[in-house]
Design a protein that fits this description.
The chain is an alpha+beta fold. It is built from 7 helices and 14 strands.
Length: 262
């Protein structure tokens, strides 16, 4: 758990104002803090004149985080004059929970097999896959819901039979309304092995899996909105099919139900 205090920020970190002052928010899980930082990272640059920051107290250290141009800057509160570290959300969580320090001090190559689960980054490095059969492609599409196979599969060309159905275009007013209401963080649960979706207003999408002793594994994607029948769907550049918006707080992807948590 991380003890969080907000400075010149609303409770959801979407808005900054100097009149908001200091607000103690209490204990956050790694997932809750990651979602808060993602929102904070999207803060309107104009609002940075209020000097907003997120302060985080761990069992060992005290930090504060600032943002600029959609980047996050991590400072050690005990050495405020030291240069900031420009990190992704996952890298910040890893620094806060000690995972990063443990990796830096580990015997070389001793933890190689676990690196994939520890990395939460803005981009995922992929190996160029070999050509695969249609049956193998279908199996990997099913494994998308487990996320790990998605990373290997990402650059594999789809067969024609695997293409997602075309969506009907939305009216401009409908599209604008959904672009305001849909963004958020959706989870199947909060236990290791369960999955989440971060839907961003700019058309970005993050698919992640919780890990028991490491930062979540994350895959970057994009989406567009459209209609299939009477239901709103998100069409992505990932295997696994469309993401259905069952209602304002519920998404369905790979036969899993994702509930909005933020």
């Amino acid at each position: 758990m991380f003890n969080v205090t907000l400075v010149n920020l609303t409770a959801d970190a979407r808005t900054a104002d100097v009149e908001l002052g200091v607000s103690k928010r209490g204990n956050f899980t790694a997932l809750e803090l990651a979602a808060l930082l993602e929102t904070f990272r999207e803060l309107d640059p104009v609002q940075n004149i209020s000097d907003p920051e997120i302060r985080v107290q761990t069992a060992r250290e005290s930090y504060f985080i600032r943002t600029e141009q959609k980047k996050l800057f991590l400072y050690n509160s005990r050495n405020r004059e030291d240069p900031a570290y420009v990190l992704t959300v996952a890298e910040i969580i890893a620094e806060l929970d000690g995972t990063a320090a443990a990796a830096r001090t580990a015997v070389p190559f001793a933890m190689t097999s676990g690196l994939g689960d520890r990395l939460l980054s803005e981009e995922v490095a992929l190996r160029e896959p070999k050509p695969v059969s249609r049956r193998r492609t279908a199996a990997k599409i099913a494994a998308t819901c487990l996320l790990g196979a998605t990373i290997i599969y990402l650059k594999t060309p789809w067969d024609q039979g695997d293409e997602q159905p075309a969506l009907s275009r939305l009216e401009p007013t409908e599209l604008a309304a959904y672009q305001l209401s849909l963004p958020g963080v959706y989870m199947t649960g909060n236990q290791p092995g369960q999955h989440g979706l971060v839907v961003m207003a700019n058309g970005g999408l993050k698919i992640f899996q919780l890990n028991s002793q490491a930062a979540p594994s994350v895959l970057q994607a994009n989406y567009s909105l459209g209609q299939l029948g009477t239901k709103l769907h998100l069409q992505t550049n990932q295997p696994g099919g469309l993401i259905q918006a069952a209602d304002r707080n519920t998404l369905i992807y790979c036969n899993e139900v994702y509930i909005r948590i933020r």
